[in-house]
Amino acid sequence: MLRYLIIAKGRVQGVGFRYFAELTAYKLNLTGWCKNLMDGAVEIEIQGLEKNVLSFISAIKAGNNFSRIEDLDLSRIDLIENEKKFTIKY
Asked: Would 66 be classed as within a structural domain?
């Protein structure tokens, strides 16, 4: 198990990117959350099995049909025990 903090920069707000992240996390059985930042980026914390987290990161790099990722900052962070699902924070 591992957990990453991801900052996605580019065209990631107003294009369904958080919903895309939520669906991708659900499909890969991952937990965590995502939220829009004031500077136009999206912050994501993602946790799960290493292969699933790496698949999530690859999917996020590709984005959905409407988003465009210009930069992805990745930082490995401490696990959160007993986290149950992936949510969108507002």
From this structure: yes
Closest residue by Cα to residue 24 from 41, 8, 40 = 8
d(CA 85, CA 29) in angstroms, rounded, equals 8
Residue type, 67: S
* Residues annotated catalytic, as ranges: 18, 36
Nearest to 89 by CA among 35, 45, 37, 44: 35
Please name the residue ranges forming H helices in 1-90: 17-27, 50-62
Q: What is the pLDDT along the chain (90 residues), one digit of tens a residue?
A: 999 999 999 999 999 999 999 999 999 999 999 999 999 999 999 999 999 999 999 999 999 999 999 999 999 999 999 999 999 999
Name the strand (E) or helix (H) holding 77.
Answer: strand 68-77
What's the total number of domains in the chain? 1
Query: Could you tell me if residue 17 is inside a domain?
Result: no
Q: What is the pTM of this model?
A: 0.96
